[in-house]
Write a structure and sequence with these properties.
This is Aminotransferase class V domain-containing protein. Belongs to the class-V pyridoxal-phosphate-dependent aminotransferase family. NifS/IscS subfamily. Its cofactor is pyridoxal 5'-phosphate. It comes from Chrysotila carterae (Marine alga). By secondary structure, the chain is of the alpha/beta class. It starts with 5 loop residues before the first strand and ends with a helix. The model has no long low-confidence stretch (mean pLDDT 95). The strands form three sheets. A six-stranded mixed β-sheet has the order 2-1-3-4-5-6, with helices on both faces. Strands 7-8-12-9 form a four-stranded antiparallel β-sheet.
Length: 302
């Protein structure tokens, strides 16, 4: 038979992308190549370009990673891909980036961009797909003519208005808000690393601020069970772990940390912490105190 249509993506995408591509591949509808991220969670544009085949029709690489906050070189990826194969479509999942770092679809050179309402202050249940003017897509759902015929079904005007308002605020507040997020995130990282020491902690992701989101802190605590820590602190601290586990031996490290080759003793102790618009320095200090005390309790085996 004819060669299958080919997609290039990365091995640190959100499951919403990877699970979808894997399902389509298992149905025999396309083939997919996952480009490996480096140890900082960054995907190289040259690696994406090298993965292109004569049958590639789509490249989908996230704008920023949801676990470690690495911001991908989307403009460079678009430029390299389009110079080699102008007809290939570029999509980026920008769910984590809107309202935290500047986003301009023209500068990025993308054909499509996904954004999600609840990541930028809108209610849950609303998002948007930016589609470059002139790009014709087949309907996702058949029936009505809503959303330019692409997705049938009556829209919620309430949610759409909320998304628009959130987008306006995100643009207006971008500079002060990202500064606030970075200051609170950096204090949290400083408090934890200075108390526990450089050998017992490892910040996952890029160290260059230009390559990372301002609000995300993925920090590995050596020899600690992040799952146990979160369970103990569940009524006082909102965070997630880099490993899902019932016991340390049977623990499964997240696909992103595995892709970045984070050493297991840090991966099992990885916490994903985020600061936001309403986070205060007092709350940051409270969170740091809780984490430090629980790490020390675990170390004593109490």
């Amino acid at each position: 038979g004819a060669p299958l249509p080919h997609v290039v993506s990365s091995n640190i995408e959100h499951p919403a992308v990877i699970a979808c591509l894997d399902a389509l591949a298992s149905e025999g509808r396309l083939s997919v190549s996952y480009v490996a991220a480096d140890a900082a969670g960054l995907v190289a544009a040259a690696d994406v370009a090298a993965a292109l085949t004569p049958h590639t029709f789509l490249v989908s690489v996230m704008h920023s990673n949801n676990e470690v906050g690495s911001v991908q070189p989307i403009a460079e990826i678009s430029s390299m891909v389009k110079s080699e194969m102008p007809h290939v479509l570029i999509h980026t999942d920008a769910a984590q980036s809107i309202g935290k770092v500047p986003i301009d679809v023209r500068e990025l050179g993308v054909d499509m961009l996904t954004l999600v309402g609840h990541k930028m202050g809108a209610p849950k249940g609303v998002g948007a797909l930016y589609v470059r003017a002139g790009l014709k897509l087949p309907p996702l759902l058949h029936g009505g003519g809503q959303e330019a015929g692409r997705r049938a079904g009556t829209e919620s005007v309430l949610l759409l208005a909320a998304l628009g308002a959130a987008a306006t605020i995100a643009r207006t507040d971008l500079v002060p808000l990202s500064r606030h997020m970075r200051a609170t995130r950096d204090r949290l990282a400083y408090r934890i690393t200075s108390a526990l020491g450089p050998n017992a902690t490892r910040v996952n992701g890029p160290h260059n601020d230009a390559q990372r989101l301002p609000n995300t802190l993925s920090i590995g605590l050596k020899g600690v069970s992040a799952a146990e820590l979160l369970h103990t602190l569940r009524d006082q601290l909102a965070a997630s772990a880099g490993a899902a586990c019932h016991s340390q031996e049977a623990a499964t490290v997240s696909a992103v940390l595995r892709a970045m080759r984070v050493p297991r003793e840090y991966a099992l102790g990885t916490l994903r912490l985020s600061t936001g618009r309403h986070t205060t320095m007092r709350e940051v200090d409270q969170a740091a105190d809780l984490i430090i005390a629980e790490v020390r309790r675990q170390a004593k085996g109490v």
